Amino acid sequence: MLIKVKVFPGEKREEIIEKEKDSFEVKVKVKPERGEANKKVLELLSLHFKTPKNRIRMVKGGKQRNKIYDIIEK
Question: How does pLDDT run across 15-71, given as a tens digit for each residue?
Fold first, then answer.
């Protein structure tokens, strides 16, 4: 399942907001340095979808705010 994620790094709170079934906004505390924000987004998505991190893969947007992730179903 492909999902669109818009990331907001450097926020005061960490949260996932579901805009549509396949579109999310993710707020993280860490700054977008050395891939730290991407790691935190992956961790939050893993908790939200209750799936291991190795079953979530970034398809597009490594250095951009708008990203596409693939959630690999069982």
Answer: 999 999 999 999 999 999 999 999 999 999 999 999 999 999 999 999 999 999 999
| Placement of tokens 């340095």 in the chain | 33
CATH architecture of 2-71: 2-Layer Sandwich (3.30)
> What angle is formed at CA 25 by the lines to CA 10 and CA 65, rounded to 5 degrees?
60
Q: What are 26's two structure tokens?
A: 């993710």
3-state helix, strand, coil in the chain (%, to 5): 25, 40, 40
CB 64 within 8 A of CB 7: no
